[in-house]
Amino acid sequence: MIGRPVADPRTGRPGSGVPDCDTRAAQGDDQPRFYFRSHDGTVPGMLRNSNQDTRARIALVTPPYDADIAAALEVLGPPIGIFRVFARRPDRAHGIAGWGRYYLSRRCALSLRHRELLILRTTAQCGAESEWGVHVQVFAAKAGLSDGQVRSVTAGDPDDPCWTEPADRAVLRAADALDRDSDLSDADWSSLVAAVGEEGAVDALLICGWYHAISYVARATRIAPEPGAPLFADFGASSRVGRSA
């Protein structure tokens, strides 16, 4: 998350889920699991570690902030961990905030829903639990995503039955292809353009690329999940989510 969103986080932490976007409670199993339907196997075979139980590799800025750092945090947003990394160098923070003011606004060519599907899918694929959790907490309800859809975007498949809109499926398939191949096939490109238009497709490419960069920072600097933010496990997924190393 980059920029200052409207503060309207979901309250409380969702319960764990079960396979196929279903919201039913798992029966006879106090360790719910979500299986990724794939030609390559299930989530346990396609995983990456999150940073849930690791120590940060670099110091985050802490209060009292000097004037430059305070100004940097002001343009970035609430002082979550990744912003406190960016604010170590205020010029960097201001540059990043400029991009955030576009893609997190109504000026973006994508709807909020499609933007968030791309962000959640990309950060989950990269195992960036801290950034994923912030977006679930702040934006999932605004994007109209059900708990089952959040489970699926985290560790499921675009063909899961919770995705009834062709545009949602096209956006998720594009995120998966970009993560896997750094490219889109002619079919995936055509489907994406049909769903979001050419300008939306360009913004989709930029957002997927940007959230790979965000995920690299979150993971490589070992940023922990924010206090009170959802974790992968809250949606029935392992704390190890993403493609195989």
Core attributes:
245 residues, mainly alpha, AhpD-like, 8 helices, 47% helix
Q: Mind explaining what this structure looks like?
A:
With 245 residues, the chain is mainly α. It has a domain at 109-235: AhpD-like (Up-down Bundle). It is globular. The chain contains 8 helices and no strands. The two termini are 25 Å apart. The chain has helices spanning 67-76, 81-86, 90-103, 112-125, 129-139, 147-155, 166-181, 186-220.
Give the percentage of residues in beta strands: under 5%
Q: Order of SSEs, N→C? A: HHHHHHHH
Which homologous superfamily in CATH is the superfamily of the domain at 109-235? AhpD-like
Helix and strand content put the structural class at mainly alpha
**Proportion in helices:** 40-55%
Termini separation: 25 Å
The rough form would be described as globular
Round the mean pLDDT to the nearest integer and report it: 83
CATH structural class of the domain at 109-235: Mainly Alpha
Largest sheet: none
Draw up the topology in text.
Layout lengths: L66 H10 L4 H6 L3 H14 L8 H14 L3 H11 L7 H9 L10 H16 L4 H35 L25
Helix pairs in contact: 1-3, 4-5, 4-6, 4-7, 4-8, 7-8
Précis, in short:
The chain has a domain at 109-235: AhpD-like (Up-down Bundle). It contains eight helices and no strands.
